[in-house]
Amino acid sequence: MATRAWYSYSGTSGGEFNPINYFYVTSAPICSIVGSEVCSLLGIYLSWSSHPATFSTNINSYVATALAFGVAQPLLPGQKKYVYMRG
User: Which residue ranges of the chain lie beneath pLDDT 70?
Assistant: First the structure.
């Protein structure tokens, strides 16, 4: 199983689907469940890079849904969140 780590989004609007716009952080960022933009995501850790690995279909889906509804994803109670929001 791949190791996952937190990555903070620091790109501009429209770049949420590009891993290069996310940067490794040593602890979970302070984000919220509800917001208008992506704050962070739990991505596959690459020890040689400050950016996550290429996004899986699930991560891309979580980002798209989070942006569409302004809510952290996945939304189901009790499920681990992979995308958090801010703003």
Answer: none
pLDDT at residue 14, as a whole number:
77
What tokens appear for 36 in the block?
């208008």
> Global pTM?
0.91
The domain segmentation of the chain, as residue ranges, is 4-86
Q: Is the dihedral of CA 71, 62, 22, 48 positive or negative?
A: positive
| Encoded amino acid at 83, one letter | V
Q: Are 71 and 34 in contact (CB under 8 A)?
A: yes
The span from the CA of 6 to the CA of 82, in Å, is 9
SS (HEC) of the chain: CCCEEEEEECCCCCCCCCHHHEEECCCCCCCECECCEEEEEEEECCCCCCCCCCCCHHHHHHHHHHHHHCECECCCCCCCCCEEEEC
